[in-house]
């Protein structure tokens, strides 16, 4: 159950990152006015929607990969105690990001925090004989 909840948190953070990078969530409006030599003017307004990647470029990957990496670390560790500490750190780290980014994308990470807390609260397995 611990590993499954951790994998769920990882998949959720990957999904949130992909959503904000690729899905058009930002509105964009551009306006242009041209005046011809005879004095007539033309006003053109175009609107559309774009994703975070189109707005911010590749630098948008940096803040979106932090939660993904925090969820990945516990899965890479071998020791159950180290996994438990990494799960606690990941839950607290992403929880802090949720609070800091609550006005924008922070709340989208709440399910990942819940999954990490569930993974953390699962008891350590007794070593098999």
Summarize the structure.
The chain is α+β, with helices and mostly antiparallel strands and 129 residues long.
Q: How is this structure best described in words?
A:
With 129 residues, the chain is of the alpha+beta class. The chain has a domain at 2-22 and 57-121. It is built from 5 helices and 2 strands. A two-stranded antiparallel ribbon has the order 1-2. A hairpin with a 5-residue loop joins strand 1 (26-35) and strand 2. Helix 1 runs antiparallel to helix 5. The protein is rod-shaped, with a radius of gyration of 22 Å. It starts with a helix and ends in an 8-residue tail after the last helix. The model has no long low-confidence stretch (mean pLDDT 88).
Outline the biggest β-sheet.
2 strands, antiparallel
The percent range for helix content is 55-70%
Task: Note the overall shape.
Answer: rod-shaped
How many individual β-strands?
2
Distance between the termini: 21 Å
Q: Reading side by side through the largest sheet, how are the strands ordered?
A: 1-2
Element-level helix/strand string: HEEHHHH
Low-confidence stretches: none
Radius of gyration: 22 Å
| Quaternary state of the chains | single chain
Structural class call reads alpha+beta
Helical stretch tally? 5
Strand residue percentage: 15-25%
Indicate the mean pLDDT: 88
